[in-house]
Every structure is written in C-alpha cells, then in structure tokens.
Specification:
By secondary structure, the chain is an alpha/beta fold. About 30% of the residues lie in helices and about 15% in strands. It folds into two domains: about 1-65, Alpha-Beta Plaits; about 85-335, Aldolase class I (TIM Barrel, Alpha-Beta Barrel), CATH 3.20.20.70. The chain has an eight-stranded parallel beta sheet with strand order 13-12-11-10-9-8-7-14. Strands 2-3-1-4 form a four-stranded antiparallel beta sheet. The chain has a two-stranded antiparallel ribbon with strand order 5-6.
C-alpha cells in the first residue's frame, strides 16, 4: 500500500507510521519529496487495515496497489476457473457458453414448468432456472412454493437431464436447497448477506452470485471473496443490472462493461441475466447477443409457459414460442463466435 503524508507532516509522525507498519512485518520504502513524504509498504494487508492508518497524525491518504479481493483476482490465479458438472457441462474459460432458462417462480402446477423444461432441452439449454423461495418487495406477493417447488424442479431435471439452479434466501434453508439444486443461487438482494455468503462457502455445490442493484464491481467481487475465503472455489458471477435513473424504459441498467472488466481482474466465470437487467422481454434477445459478444460465459433468461398469468415477472419473461425464436438466433450467433480466443470474436 501507499501512504501519502501531509505536506507538513513531522519526522515523528512519519516515524510513527513506519514503526507501526514494521511491527506488522511490512517492508518500507520512504520517498522524501520536496512537498510531501510517500511511504510504500509491502506486506500482508490483512495484518493492518488500510483505513486504520487514516487515524495516524500526519496521514493524508492511503492507497492500495493491489485489489482487495485476493482469492477472486487474477493475481492469485492466472487461469480461468472452469466449473465442471458430472454430466459434462462446463462453465467458464474458453468453453461454449451455457444457457439457463426457466420461470421466475415455480408455480402451483408442474405442467407449466415441464413444458418450459422440455423446450429448454430442445433448444440446447443446459440448465433450468426456477425460484422455490422468492424474495418479494411486497409481503402480499407470491413467496414461492418452498420444498414443493424444489421437488418440481427435481422432477423436471429427472425428465430432461437439465441441471437445476435455484435461489436460497436463508442459512436455515441451505441444507434443503443443497439437497435439490445443482447450483445454489444467491440473489441480488442477498449479495451482501455475509452470513449467507459464509454459509454457502462451507458447502461444495457451485454458487451463482448475483450482483446487487447498487453494488460496485469491487463490492461484487468482494462478496464472491467471502465464498472463496470460506472454502468453496466454485463461484459463478451473474451481472443482472444495476439501478439507473431511467426506469421508464428499463427495469435496471444492464452493465455489460462489467463482463470484460471482471474477466480482466478475476478468474471467475461471469454470466448475464438480461431479463432482470432490462425488465422487458423484447430486450432479452439483443442484450443476450451483446453479452455473448462481450465475452459472457452464459446467459440466464426467464421463460414462462403463459407469461401474462405468471405469478412474478411476466413482463420480462418470454413465452415458449418467443423463446424458441430467440434461442435459434442465439445458437446461430454462438456458432459464429471463436471461443479459442480469450475474447469472443465474431
């Protein structure tokens, strides 16, 4: 880290900072400038929190020269993380992108879910999405079917061979969700639920972490760091849009720049959710294509057998006919992208 001292900092104030850092094992390089002194400290940042140095007399600013997300960064692992499932599906690296499709909520009849699952299988998708536990803004909205919904997802997996991704909202429900899911999702509202992040870090199932609606990329990666730090290396990041100022035309602002940025600074795979990212079904196809060209390792989209009667998120869900048309176009694009290159090139 770099500690910039005030122009009028005394020798004693500089010595106090230096001695504090040396006592924690840091190597020190001092640069006495004409105006101010700069201290370069090399060592383990976990031993001295940078913000604590701001309380020392004479300190003007503390800057980090390495990213705070150690385990998630390219500095700790140069090669891309590739998550492989027993059925051969892979997420990450230079692998062909995966498509996750399904309804926002698993609803009271399994027939609709199965109809979507069969269509997803037919169009080459690898993963079925569906919420059994639903975090809703209003307590009067549909909250999910809980274990019955998980059972429906498991039945759809058995009949189609698709993997299942579903959200967990509470540490108390984690063992139950782990029993049914192939991928455990941490939703955007829980991105900084640190107790939940630590809990999924102690399990072995892959975790898909969604970006919070007001989270910076650094905060997003630090949330992933909690999972990695607690022992689970199988983390998939999901860009699903952040809050913007124009809510008339889109639900969120889909930050596609996050894809190449995260690929530059992290080895973790990243997928994109254009359904939540835009809130409009007509935008799913163009934003999916843009995400894939930007280098996303996959797409998550909402598909419902009857969106106009969906219990949640009908406006951002494709019906099955629309889904098949979108997937035909996306599959054509995927066939034109060179995945032997680290950056997808049409």
């Amino acid at each position: 880290m770099i500690i910039i001292m005030e122009p009028g900092a005394t020798k004693q104030q500089i010595d106090n900072v230096v001695e504090h850092l040396k006592s924690h094992g840091f190597r020190i390089n001092l640069n006495y400038g004409d105006v101010m002194t700069v201290i370069a400290a090399i060592g383990d940042k976990r031993l001295v929190q940078p913000h604590s140095l701001n309380s020392f007399e004479g300190v003007r600013e503390v800057k980090l020269i390495q990213e705070p997300f150690k385990l998630a960064s390219r500095e700790s692992q140069k090669e891309d993380t590739v998550i492989e499932f027993p059925n051969g599906v892979k997420i990450g690296g230079l692998e062909r992108p995966v498509i996750m499709a399904g309804p926002c909520s698993v609803e009271r009849e399994i027939d609709g879910l199965l109809e979507v699952a069969y269509a997803a299988k037919e169009m080459g998708c690898q993963i079925l999405r569906g919420g059994a536990f639903k975090p809703r803004t209003s307590p009067y909205d549909f909250q999910g079917m809980e274990e019955k919904g998980l059972q429906y997802l498991a039945e759809a997996r058995e009949k189609t061979g698709l993997l299942v991704v579903t959200e967990v909202m509470d540490t108390l429900d984690l063992p139950l969700v782990e029993d049914y899911a192939d991928i455990v999702q941490i939703g955007a509202r829980n991105m900084q639920n640190f107790k939940l992040l630590k809990a999924v870090g102690k399990y072995s199932k892959p975790v898909m972490l969604k970006r919070g609606p007001a989270a910076t990329i650094r905060e997003f990666l630090l949330a992933a760091e909690h999972i990695l730090y607690n022992g689970n290396p199988n983390v998939i990041l999901c860009e699903r849009g952040i809050k913007g100022f124009d809510s008339t035309y889109t639900r969120n602002t889909l930050d596609l720049a996050a894809v190449p940025i995260i690929k530059k600074y992290s080895h973790l795979p990243i997928i994109v959710d254009p359904s939540h990212g835009t809130g409009k079904r007509y935008l799913i196809e163009p934003m999916s294509k843009a995400a894939l060209v930007a280098g996303a390792h996959g797409i998550m989209m909402e598909v419902h057998h009857d969106p106009d009667r969906a219990y949640s998120d009908g406006a951002q869900s494709l019906n099955i006919e629309q889904f098949k048309k979108v997937m035909a176009s996306i599959n054509q694009l995927i066939g034109r992208i060179d995945y032997s290159n680290k950056h997808a090139v049409v």
